[in-house]
Amino acid sequence: MLLKVYRAAMPCREETEETPRGQRSCDRVSLKGWTMKRVCAWCTKEMGAVEGSSHPDTEISHGICGSCADNFTFQQGVPFQRYLDSIPVPVLAVDRFVVVKAVNRKACDMLGKDPREIVQHLGGNVFECAHARLPEGCGRTIHCSGCVIRKSVTRTFETGEPQISVPATLRRTDPDHPSAVVLFITTVKSGDMVMLRVDRIE
User: In CATH, what number is assigned to the domain containing residue 104?
Assistant: First the structure.
């Protein structure tokens, strides 16, 4: 799923005395007066428009709609698991240490594993990261500080901001056929968990 953020088209004003020669007023960094549609990072439902006031690359704000926020609430385990299994893409619920607390069927199929081999295991072990097999283990090697999956989960925990379709290169642990795959992941905070969705694999 790709998050789409649209900006309302605004006509460029002609050059004025205050506009540097050769530059149109709409070329300026300030975007005050522009509007952007906010879209739910999870289901892509539109959540209304906001006014921009700075550079477009730094003003985009992502959020979660009320329906998705309600669905992320853990309710006695079974309803939440049913909701997870209804999601047509791989999803794992992880804690701040990237320990998997719940997983849906699509993620099990993608990983080729039973839930018992995933739940309560560290993400690096679940995804079979090569660095997780080092003596220090997942999260403790010199490589882990650059792990995009771990950094995305941590950022979402600390700021509450979803990370949308972030590319993460994963080096797999096959001694005979070492390989690297790129996962595009989205992270969304839900209480004391982060929902980690695998959008696609290349």
Answer: 3.30.450.20
At 16-60, the pLDDT tens digits run 444 445 444 334 334 455 566 677 777 767 777 655 544 444 444
CB 105 within 8 A of CB 90: no
The phi, psi pair for 175, rounded to 5°, reads: -55, -35
- Nearest CA to 31 among 15, 12, 16, 48? 12
Classify residue 26 by its DSSP letter.
G
Indicate the average pLDDT of the chain.
76
Identify each DSSP E strand in the chain by its residue range.
35-39, 46-51, 91-94, 100-103, 163-172, 179-190, 193-201
pTM comes to 0.68
124 pLDDT exceeds 80?
yes
| Phi, psi for 64 (deg, rounded to 5) | -120, 130
In the predicted structure, residue 154 carries a pLDDT above the cut 90: yes
Residues 111 and 143 in one domain: yes
Residue with tokens 């975007």: 31
Locus of tokens 């996962």 = 183
**Does residue 118 lie within any of the structural domains?**
yes
**Residue 146 and residue 178 share a domain:** yes
Around 70, how many Cα atoms within 13 Å sit in the side-chain half-sphere?
3
Instruction: Please tell me whether residues 89 and 44 are part of one structural domain.
Output: no
With residue 170 as reference, give the H or E element that holds it.
strand 163-172
Give per-residue pLDDT as tens, 129-143.
Answer: 998 888 999 999 998
What is the extent of the structural domain holding 109? 84-201
